[in-house]
């Protein structure tokens, strides 16, 4: 647990408010949720933007020392987050983006969430589509098997395609310089092979009755997790007795949580969370 995590958990426990845990995905850090955290705090919740193991405090530090980000697996990160959530006195809502959306569903499947929102979530075992755009977005990692044990940065052109295709070139450049960090390659290899490996860590208990309400948000123009993947995750999650919903936000790409339209997505998530906690 970092000092950042400790402070947020202590603050949430001291407040008479429901915690909302934010989980980032690959190529981002907890700071990517800062505006969301402020927004949810103003709405009456206690925001907790949790780190992955060994996350640096800043984008600059992460880019200087990418080696600290390497080697993290889906299971390792999920267990790390579950332990942190265990330190909260009240069951939180959990909101995650991309691989954070997959982790959100894993945590919800463990019964750790009062309500969950998975935004453009990475696929898990049982999600079968293989969109060409997703393969292209993952290619910077998956084309070299050695990347499984490395932290891999994106070039601007790669970030433009996989994250920022639905914004202007100027905004894409600003997002890249502000938010982008190297990411561990292992989770992408795990997701890519999940349907071939019965023991994969990239799996979700979709039938646990303690999962709670779940919303999946899909960006219409997302190259990395297009509608086919989000909808396939939704169809698997509908097996759960809890409320399961999906919504597509028009004109948005994979950067929908950090680009100029972030508040529309945040309000969509907030409206869902308010219904239940």
Automatic annotation (TrEMBL):
Signal peptide range in chain numbering? none
Q: Which residues form a coiled coil?
A: none
Q: Where is the AB hydrolase-1 domain?
A: 20-267
Q: Record's Pfam families?
A: Abhydrolase_6
Which GO-annotated molecular functions does the record name?
Answer: hydrolase activity
InterPro entries for the chain: AB_hydrolase_1, AB_hydrolase_fold, Carboxylesterase_BioH
Write the record's keywords in alphabetical order, separated by commas: Hydrolase
Protein name listed in UniProt:
Alpha/beta hydrolase
Organism source for this protein?
Answer: Streptomyces olindensis
- Print the organism lineage: Bacteria, Bacillati, Actinomycetota, Actinomycetes, Kitasatosporales
